UniProtKB/TrEMBL annotation:
Organism (species): Klebsiella variicola (strain 342) (Klebsiella pneumoniae)
Superkingdom of origin: Bacteria
Coiled-coil region(s): 4-59
Full protein name: Putative major capsid protein
NCBIfam families the UniProt entry points to: major_cap_HK97 (TIGR01554)
InterPro entries listed in its UniProt record: Phage_capsid, Phage_capsid-like_C
Pfam family, one: Phage_capsid
Length: 264
């Protein structure tokens, strides 16, 4: 005997065929004799399957009414507890990225994935907060973790470059544009005058995006190894682009490299 769900699928398929023929008629077309016969047959099949589904559902309801409850065992019910996720530097940002990918951009689904599948309540709360604030209130520690990890991967950062936060996206810093000069001179000769010159450096925040492809199959195997794979991919993409910006960008649509900045 066919299962109820199978009958419902069959009925849905028949309904699609009926709607296709009805669309032809509704759009001003004329059904051929064969199509009219097919339409009548499909209607009859739809009615027959619907009646069969109703009988099976009635039989299930009757069986449920006379069913006897299963006697409870003496053992206490088991409690399934998910293991706490491993915490490490970059874990929060990685799980946030995976959750947003799993939710296909829907932050509510992403928060649910972080809570139920990754078992990371802090990331789930961060996503929920971001959904209500347009992403402005993502905790500082999430992107600070990534910046910390980039220090060992980016050449310029490794040389000791100091990151400066730009809360409002802009900042003006004073700098020494020219310093005092020294020179050799003869006896009783006048010394050459020199002075220190100052000007300002205007810093403007730039947006750097790393697009990391993550398949649904990979997300479904969420775990430490998969998280590390995603994290390393993100760090590699960002570090390579940052080094290029630090050393070769000319300011057109991006940053100004160290050489050009020092000449201005």
């Amino acid at each position: 005997m066919p299962h109820i769900e199978e009958l419902r699928r069959q009925r849905a398929g028949i309904n699609e065929q009926v709607q296709t023929l009805a669309t032809i008629d509704a759009s001003g077309g004329t059904l051929t004799a064969e199509q009219l016969t097919e339409f009548a047959n499909l209607q009859q099949q739809f009615t027959d399957i619907s009646a069969k589904i109703e009988r099976l559902e009635a039989a299930e309801r009757a069986a449920a009414l006379v069913a006897k409850p299963v006697k409870a065992t003496q053992q206490a019910p088991g409690i399934i507890v998910k293991q706490e996720p491993k915490q490490y530097t970059g874990a929060g940002m990685t799980r946030l990225v995976m959750s947003v990918a799993a939710g296909a951009g829907n932050l509510q689904d992403a928060a649910k994935f972080a809570s139920e599948e990754l078992n990371d309540q802090s990331v789930s709360m961060a996503i929920s907060t971001a959904a209500a604030s347009g992403g402005v209130l993502i905790p500082q520690n999430l992107h600070s973790e990534v910046i910390e990890l980039l220090s060992d991967r980016t050449i310029v950062r490794k040389l000791g470059a100091r990151p400066v936060p730009l809360p409002n996206g802009n900042m003006t810093l004073p700098r020494v544009a020219g310093g005092a000069t020294a020179s050799y001179t003869g006896e009783n000769k006048d010394a050459k005058t020199s002075e220190t010159r100052f000007d300002d450096v205007k810093l403007t925040a730039k947006t750097l995006i790393a697009m990391v492809p993550i398949s649904n199959a990979l997300i479904g195997r969420a775990g430490f190894n998969v998280e590390q794979l995603v994290l390393q991919d993100i760090l590699t993409a960002i570090s390579v682009r940052e080094d290029k910006a630090f050393m070769r960008d000319d300011g057109n649509g991006g940053m100004i490299d160290v050489k050009l900045r020092s000449m201005r």
